[in-house]
Automatic annotation (TrEMBL):
<dbReference type="InterPro" id="IPR011257">
    <property type="entry name" value="DNA_glycosylase"/>
</dbReference>
<feature type="binding site">
    <location>
        <position position="197"/>
    </location>
    <ligand>
        <name>Zn(2+)</name>
    </ligand>
</feature>
<dbReference type="GO" id="GO:0008725">
    <property type="term" value="F:DNA-3-methyladenine glycosylase activity"/>
</dbReference>
<dbReference type="Pfam" id="PF03352">
    <property type="entry name" value="Adenine_glyco"/>
</dbReference>
<protein>
    <submittedName>
        <fullName>DNA-3-methyladenine glycosylase I</fullName>
    </submittedName>
</protein>
<dbReference type="GO" id="GO:0046872">
    <property type="term" value="F:metal ion binding"/>
</dbReference>
<dbReference type="GO" id="GO:0006284">
    <property type="term" value="P:base-excision repair"/>
</dbReference>
<dbReference type="InterPro" id="IPR052891">
    <property type="entry name" value="DNA-3mA_glycosylase"/>
</dbReference>
<keyword id="KW-0479">Metal-binding</keyword>
<keyword id="KW-0862">Zinc</keyword>
<dbReference type="InterPro" id="IPR005019">
    <property type="entry name" value="Adenine_glyco"/>
</dbReference>
Amino acid sequence: MSDEIRSAAPATHARDAGLVVGEDGLARPLWASKDLLLREYYDGEWGLPVRDERGLFERLSLEAFQSGLSWAIILRKRPAFRLAFADFDPDAVAAFDDRDVERLLGDAGIVRNRAKILATIGNARATVALRDEGGLAQFIWSFQPETTPQPRSLDEIPSRSAESAAAAKALRSKGFSFVGPTTVFALMEAVGIVDTHLLGSHRRGTSGVWSAR
């Protein structure tokens, strides 16, 4: 979850702290109510389980690119990211060379940050290497906590956890970069490892991983 999402102020017509009831009668946090793209992402994707290698590699990559930027920007650029990074196929990205780096730096459709581009290529290679130990999905999901937060307001949503710190440290030991505890926690939220939907949100407990409470 990006800083813009965490800092969104509750609306005066919220049914619960930080929640807005839409015209469809469904309660969502403010950040998912003010932009159609974010609303669609919240309703149909954010927090649902992702357990495949490519899907996790893509989300890990996008979370790294999002660092310091608006998540809405990353979502709008996601089609271009997928095109530029071979649909986030780890084997294909792992084979990128200097010519690909220069190509990516010249691609206005993505975030042109050399360090993040190089990190994504390096993370693809680390993902491929991790297959010998069960793979990226098994590795990341092994840090699922025993309980999940139960936030009633945006202020109660943590930005990191003991598990995200441990996962970040473990990922770095396997050759991954741009995987700090905050970035990893955002990944864990996005792929259902933790559920930080606000209590009262229509999405709370819908992942099949955690109950509504």
